[in-house]
Amino acid sequence: MLVTQQKVLRRFWYPVIPSDRLAGGPHPFTLLGTNLVLFRDAAGKAAALIDRCCHRTARLSKGWLDAGNVVCPYHGWTYAGDGKCVRIPQRPGGDPGKNIGVKAFRCTERYGVVWVALEEPLRDIPALPEYDDPAYRRVFEFYEPWQAPGLRIMENSFDNAHFAFVHKESFGIVDEPEPVQPRLEADPAGFTMYADVPVKNPVLQQANLGIASDRTVRHYEKTWWMPFSRKMKVTYPNGLVHIIMTLTAPIDDRRSQVIQFLLRSDSEADAPAENLIKFDRQVTHEDMAILEACDHDVPLSPTGELHMPTDRPGLEMRRMLARLLAEHGESEVRRDGSVPPMLASAAE
Ligand code: FES
Ligand SMILES: [Fe+2]
User: At the top level of CATH, which class does the domain 7-117 belong to?
Assistant: First the structure.
């Protein structure tokens, strides 16, 4: 599936930038191949406009902000957060007249993140009740582009069979490769997967978790939200809860912008944020090294790649995405331009 070719994917909210990074804009961002300019407008609201001036197509993100309006760097035409042109400096008094402006996109903020939808969203931004629960502290981990499509990133995080290999240096048990089979619970917006997985518990994690043993068990409750975000809730035997939110936005057919933050049921005194980030970064870099070298055009058809039983979550993602396309009258577009014959049956 080439994400920029599937129109229905424009109808979801995507996490584009952490709210605290919006200051100092304007910022360029590419979402599903569409160039955007992001900034905080005069009312303090996050704004997303097409990054293309309506005068001579200059990139607004190369301009600057003037009292919450973005100024084009070419001739100074100035746009408000709703896309309306509010000043044309070459005209008397700068009056832009009526009906001049650029396209503005739906833009909002939740969980300390700016979200954009290119077209009317099919669903709301996923619910995350723990975010406002004082029982949890928040730890920001990273914001960065990965050279991998969202579907590869998503199915990897629901794949119990890769731990013993990809994560052999961090938490995978290399000589126990037989994976735990997951249990899935369907949801209209995705699914939740449950699994109790034995893991290696290295010294840094022993301190991070307060578990003085070289092995422990992760009780996983992982939620996939169509199309490319997930919540990974891990409960350890001592009751500690570690929630990793991995929110991704498709930049283009090959790349995703990834935001990751934690919600933890302990305190900074129990485990410094710096050490939590250190271990999770080791794990995510292990995933990244593999995923960035996989084929970016993930087939939705079950016959497109070979599978094993622990691939069920990834197969379910493919099946649900195929059904989404079919429901909106679309066929899956592949790299060679072909439409796979299995799509119809995958969508049933
Ligand atoms: S191109 Fe933007 S003002 Fe001329
Ligand atoms: Fe992984």
Answer: mainly beta
CATH code of domain 129-291: 3.90.380.10
pLDDT band at 340 (very low <50, low <70, confident <90, very high): low
pLDDT, tens digit, 9 for 90 and up, residues 53-75: 999 999 999 999 999 999 999 99
Q: Choose which residue among 37, 56, 59 to substitute to test ligand 1 binding: the one with the highest number of ligand atoms within 8 A of its C-beta.
A: 56
User: What pTM did the predictor assign?
Assistant: 0.94
CB of 77 closer than 6 angstroms to any ligand 1 atom: yes
Counting from 1 in the atom list of ligand 1, the atom nearest the Cα of 76 is: 3
Q: What digits encode the pLDDT tens for the residues 260-303?
A: 999 999 999 999 999 999 999 999 999 999 999 999 999 999 98
Q: Which residues of 229-249 are buried (b: 16+ CB within 10 A; e: fewer)?
A: bbbbbbbbeeebbbbbbbbbb
| Token pair for 122 | 């099919």
SS3 171: coil
Average pLDDT across the chain, whole number: 95
Mean pLDDT (whole number) for 27-39: 98
Query: Angle 150-157/273-291 helices, nearest 10 degrees?
Result: 120
Q: Could you tell me if the CB of 55 is within 6 A of ligand 1?
A: yes
Range(s) of the chain covered by CATH 2.102.10.10: 7-117
| Residue nearest (by alpha carbon) to ligand 1 atom 3 | 75
Instruction: For residue 110, list its beta bridge partners.
Output: 113
Q: What is the atom index within ligand 1 of the atom nearest the CA of 73? A: 2
- Which ligand 1 atom sits closest to the C-alpha of 58? 1
The single-letter code of the amino acid at 55 is: H
* 202-206: average pLDDT: 97
Tokens of 237: 């035997």
Q: Which ligand is nearest to the CA of 75?
A: 1
CATH 3.90.380.10 domain extents, the chain: 129-291
- The pocket of ion ligand 2, defined by CB under 5 A, consists of 287
